[in-house]
Specification:
InterPro entries: Glyco_hydro_43 (IPR006710), Glyco_hydro_beta-prop_sf (IPR023296), Glycosyl_Hydrlase_43 (IPR051795). The chain is mostly beta strands. The protein is 7% helix and 46% strand. It has helices at residues 13-18, 27-31, 67-70, 194-197, 340-343, and strands at 49-53, 58-64, 76-82, 92-96, 105-115, 118-131, 141-150, 158-159, 173-180, 186-192, 201-207, 213-222, 232-233, 239-240, 244-250, 256-264, 267-275, 284-291, 296-302, 308-314, 320-328, 333-338. A hairpin with a 5-residue loop joins β9 and β10.
Length: 346
């Protein structure tokens, strides 16, 4: 999350795992293992997203491209790979922002989801020179999550829809994700930027089976609904509440939980919410935070031996990945312990 200056997989990942196709073993997958010499403390990353591909026995960790690490000057997405969450390969680029589309920056918060035999990349782009209508003195600009597709999690991912955002282009949005409900229907869920709405929201759009969004966005909740989310006073006096990084999880008792991040009184935070009805439409009950310590934009995945894990980035600047063993407590998630043996601690 980079939008605010602080004033000082059941339903998503586990559902995605359930529909993961038989992954073709790509040449890239066959070559990388002997180079897996990095550890998480060495790995620059932000907004990490992990796929645990059981077919190949590979963990894929996606993040924004870092030119100094990949040699590619392009805005885009890179991936680290590991077999044990401890030793990781140097990153390789799986998506580069093509020239000629509306965006010229970003490549934030990449996520990769399996759907009907393909792998779909969701990544947030922007163009600060493409102004949207001002709102109460705030000056939003074009930002939105686009999609790309590949036959394998190794990419390369090919741009879809001409690079246009999934949500309407006049909305300033970010951190889009795929949610599949209990009936097997896909939904697009995203954060609506505080710069446009003041009090950031989490919103949902209906997806068709070919992942085309349609209908009217539905607001699931506002950032200020959570007592964990603190107002951020910007240099120009603007008041902001932030929503960031939604991800869903269906618990062992059938509860629908959502991870999301915001700014608290002590920096970036990882928090959670629960749908009272067990459905996407909610209403949503805000739960206590999972993490402070300038931690956030977390996501859940399951290890090859069945342990539920959370990965977040910390600190907000010059971030590294931090791993936590998690407990599914039914109506909420709990941290068991930080895996300092894997992430180096702190």
């Amino acid at each position: 999350m980079r939008r605010v200056i602080p004033s000082i997989l059941a339903a998503l990942m586990l559902t995605a795992c359930a529909v993961t196709p038989e992954t073709p073993v790509s040449p890239q997958s066959q070559r990388w293992a002997h180079d897996a010499t990095l550890n998480l403390p060495d790995m620059r990353l932000h907004d990490p997203f992990v796929i645990a591909d059981k077919t190949q026995g590979i963990y894929y960790l996606y993040t924004s491209n870092v030119t100094a690490l990949t040699g590619s000057p392009d805005k885009g997405v890179m991936v680290y790979k590991s077999r044990d969450l401890k030793s990781w390969s140097p990153p390789s680029v799986v998506f580069s922002l093509p020239s000629g589309i509306w965006a010229n920056g970003g490549a934030w918060a990449p996520e990769v989801h399996a759907w009907k035999g393909k792998y779909y990349l969701f990544v947030t782009l922007h163009n600060e020179d493409a102004a949207l209508a001002p709102v109460n003195g705030r000056k939003p600009y074009r930002r939105g999550t686009i999609m790309a597709v590949s036959d394998t999690p190794d990419g390369p991912f090919e741009l879809m829809n001409g690079g246009e955002p999934v949500a309407p282009a006049d909305l300033m949005t970010l951190d889009g994700t795929l949610y599949v409900d209990r009936a097997g229907k896909p939904w697009y869920v995203y954060s609506h930027e505080w710069l446009q709405v003041g009090d950031g929201t989490i919103e949902a759009l209906s997806f068709s089976d070919d992942l085309k969004a349609h209908g009217i966005p539905k607001v699931l909740f506002k950032a200020s609904d959570s007592p964990e989310s603190a107002v951020q006073i910007q240099p120009d006096g603007t008041r902001a509440y932030v929503t960031d990084g939604p991800q869903f999880y269906r618990s062992k008792t059938g509860e629908l939980l959502m991870l999301w991040s915001s700014w608290g009184n002590d920096g970036y935070i990882q928090t959670q919410a629960r749908s009272i009805t067990g459905e996407l439409s909610g209403p949503w009950q805000q739960l206590p935070r999972l993490l402070g310590q300038d931690s956030g934009h977390g996501m859940l995945f399951e290890t090859f031996d069945g342990q539920l894990m959370l990965i977040v980035h910390r600190p907000f600047k010059n971030a590294r990945g931090k791993l936590y063993e998690m407990r599914d407590a039914g109506d909420h998630l709990e941290i068991i312990r930080q895996r300092t043996d894997l992430d180096g601690g702190n």
